[in-house]
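agent> Task received from the user: take the single chain below, predict its 3D structure, and emit structure tokens. No templates, no multimer pairing.
agent> Plan: (1) validate residues, (2) run structure prediction, (3) serialize to tokens, (4) report one or two observations.
agent> Step 1 OK, no nonstandard residues flagged.
tool_call: predict_structure(input=
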Amino acid sequence: GINIIHFGLIICFNMMVGLSTPPFGMCLFTIAQVGGLNVEKISRATLPWVAPLVIVLIASLFIPELIVWLPNLLMQ
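)
tool_result: status=success, residues=76
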């Protein structure tokens, strides 16, 4: 009974949070290697962005109308 669009965006938001937070943040390690910086410095720089991502993830998880209102409008 779950909408496929809702499921896909929840997965995308989860991946955004998971790939940009330590200890398993593969994007952090890639950026550190390419930029020649240490992971701790990049982790501290991304911390202010994690809270809004988590808030949007929780809001879209519990209020699916936030995600599916536009596709529903276009499909009518």
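agent> Step 4: summary for the user.
Helices lie at 4-19, 26-35, 39-62, 65-75.
agent> Done.
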